[in-house]
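for the recovery benchmark. tokens below, seq after
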């Protein structure tokens, strides 16, 4: 057992770039598989049911789901940081208390969201000006999804805990299993049984339930540093406060981003089904690079959290620099693909010329800011590992908040719909630059203070 713990702790001892990549690649593959089955939903529904159905599983309902899940993922980052620190410091007692507190938070949060989500689904969709021809399907999809939100929350907090302790492989294995289950059930229920939107929602719910069961099973296995015991799941006040202090700003930051997307989605709803379907499909495509950048964010947050807990600030800065080189290269690749091959990507999802035209414009404009968005996410992960989610939230809220009036203003100019995309792209470029400057300023200050 000790040998296993020593291998995991190479995050604080081994060659930096090697440990980052060894930890990152399972997360990256996991996020790719996760996005694969989300995109499979879009492709199968769009091809076999139609663009109205695609707008139902994405569109307004997709934005609301991203809002809720994004907030909880941000909130769970508080648990990730706290547990990574205790693991790096080898504090077994506090680590286990944090583990059980985070589990209780997931259970309580999922119950609240399930009740409110099911009851308020129609009102939320009406608030977003959802067109009448996709309203019924959107309500069905949203209610089924919220009925299974418990599994989403449990998986997310469980996998975050495993990664915080250096285990990025098992969450990958669970995602691979669930990806194949989801794709199989999509084909079986949507195509085979002609269940349409309901079939897509049920396929997602069942696959998420499997992932939750697998991650709970992993946490309940006795390890040298931790073990989840159901009878010990409860909220411990001090650790709950610590988790919320770090997690709430990250959750609100995610909410602000998704609220901006909801406002944009509401504007697009007035432009018809083609605009809705195009935005939905390329929200899925967009998420491929976003999820990989998110994987870097998770890996650097864990790396920084464990090394910060071990008191190794110079190692923190070196790890961040190594991540910047890697994520910068990835951002450049995505930029080239989006800008120079947009038609090829668009025809994967659509055969309607108008939807393809809208999607191509989106890809080209957003493509210019891809590298900066990748850098932004990675830097947010590094700052979160230091516990500075409040600072990240302030910066993100300022720029994301300014994105909304800028998008509305540019939309009413000769740019039209392209003005919305330019508002997203320009603010992302500025944010990426600012976050990098903030990280080096913060860490240089901390190193200086520790040497005084």
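predicted aa per position
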């Amino acid at each position: 057992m000790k040998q296993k713990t020593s291998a995991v702790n190479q995050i604080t001892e081994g060659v930096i770039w090697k440990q980052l990549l060894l930890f990152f690649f399972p997360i990256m593959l996991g996020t790719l598989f996760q996005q694969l089955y989300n995109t499979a939903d879009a492709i199968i529904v769009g091809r076999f049911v139609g663009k109205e159905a695609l707008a139902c599983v994405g569109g307004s309902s997709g934005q609301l789901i991203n809002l809720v899940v994004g907030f909880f993922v941000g909130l769970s980052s508080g648990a990730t940081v706290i547990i990574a620190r205790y693991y790096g410091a080898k504090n077994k007692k506090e680590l286990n208390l944090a583990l059980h507190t985070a589990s209780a938070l997931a259970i309580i949060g999922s119950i609240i969201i399930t009740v409110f989500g099911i009851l308020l689904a129609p009102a939320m969709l009406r608030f977003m000006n959802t067109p009448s021809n996709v309203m019924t399907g959107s309500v069905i999809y949203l209610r089924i999804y919220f009925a299974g939100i418990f599994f989403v929350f449990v998986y997310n907090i469980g996998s975050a805990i495993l990664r915080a302790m250096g285990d990025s492989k098992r969450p990958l294995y669970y995602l691979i299993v669930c990806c194949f289950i989801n794709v199989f059930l999509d084909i079986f229920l949507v195509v085979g049984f002609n269940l349409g939107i309901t079939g897509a929602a049920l396929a997602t719910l069942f696959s998420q339930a499997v992932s939750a069961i697998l991650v709970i099973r992993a946490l309940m296995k006795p390890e040298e540093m931790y073990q989840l015991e159901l009878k010990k799941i409860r909220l411990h006040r001090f650790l709950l406060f610590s988790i919320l202090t770090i997690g709430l700003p990250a959750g609100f930051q995610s909410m602000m981003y998704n609220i901006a997307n909801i406002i944009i989605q509401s504007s697009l709803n007035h432009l018809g089904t083609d605009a809705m379907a195009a935005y939905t499909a390329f929200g899925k495509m967009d998420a491929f690079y976003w999820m990989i950048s998110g994987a870097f964010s998770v890996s650097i947050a864990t790396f920084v959290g464990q090394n910060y807990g071990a008191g190794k600030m110079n190692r923190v800065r070196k790890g961040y620099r190594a991540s910047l080189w890697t994520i910068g290269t990835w951002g450049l690749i995505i930029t080239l693909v989006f800008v120079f091959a947009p038609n090829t990507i668009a025809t994967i999802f659509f055969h309607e010329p108008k939807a393809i035209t809208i999607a191509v414009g989106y890809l080209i404009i957003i493509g210019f800011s891809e590298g900066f968005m990748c850098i932004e996410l990675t830097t947010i992960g590094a700052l979160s590992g230091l516990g500075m989610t409040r600072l990240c939230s302030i910066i993100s809220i300022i720029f994301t908040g300014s994105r909304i009036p800028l998008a509305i203003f540019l939309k009413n100019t000769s740019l039209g719909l392209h003005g919305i995309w330019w508002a997203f792209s320009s603010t992302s470029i500025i944010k990426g630059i600012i976050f990098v400057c903030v990280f080096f300023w913060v860490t240089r200050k901390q190193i200086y203070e520790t040497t005084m």
